[in-house]
Design brief:
Length: 359
Amino acid sequence: MSATETAIASAEAHSAHNYHPLPVVVASAEGAWMTDVEGRRYLDLLAGYSALNFGHGNRRLIDAAKAQLERVTLTSRAFHHDRFADFCTRLAELCSMEMVLPMNTGAEAVETAVKTARKWGYRVKGVPDGMAKIIVASDNFHGRTTTIISFSTDPEARADYGPYTPGFEIVPYGDLTALREAMTENTVAVLIEPIQGEAGVLVPPAGYLPGVRELTRERNVLFIADEIQSGLGRTGKTFACEHEGVVPDMYVLGKALGGGVVPVSAVVSSADILGVFKPGEHGSTFGGNPLACAVALEVIAMLRTGEYQERAAELGDHLHRELGLLAGGGAVEAVRGRGCGRVSTSRPPWAPAGRSPSG
């Protein structure tokens, strides 16, 4: 057997089959390119589901990690460490917010945002205990934990994992009327992706995000923007919300915050909102660890230059134009997205031009 076949066979035998990867075994990577165990090179258009916004092996990020590895990597939050305050300060500034609650994975950050919104609802808004509701959008993807899949509309994500966590209401993505009708006095938050990633890089209708912002402000409801996939330069702006001039009450960040080097995530909001937590009410052993903070600080410094956002916008426009030419030939059905967060849908060979595969 080849090196590729051997590695895949071993993985099939000894790892759970919760993924079905492409038959490629990566051995090294640099920039936008990966090399497999056979020496073949591939252009990585997946970019770690947006975790690799700065490419594989970015020297600034690798050097930051190496320097921190020699000093201290983990203290737990039982102690302060000399990278933590700077990380929280710089990330809050990048987001035009005041406070940061660091975690590790995107799903952890979403769960933290849910807990924050509920606690804020009970302690600040005055919602009766156990009655808080959070509105989410159909076709969402926010993670894989039991609570998060409880408000997924993907049958595959939910199958055989019940009973599910209550307290969520689902409305169609992009539908302001449905959102308005779903709001009650017990609604504490609206949690949405400014661009839906796993649903197919769906950009909402113009005016939707400003409409969400207006409705949530009117009804004293928190607007939570899950920018784990769309944020930190991917779409040509630091945050996808910026394309419509919207600032939410809370950002949920992850993936690219760790530069593809270490897992880093965070909830970023105002002191009034994140200030609802008291010592012991939430935590994470690895959240905000020195190594994560060191790498994330370098990510933030890179984003503050604006160069990466500009480059993503330029490359995204170029990609959109070139894929658009293919659409004219009938092989590509549609091209959508913003910046480097793009997707093209293709037509099977048997589908006639001008007709979708399902049409």
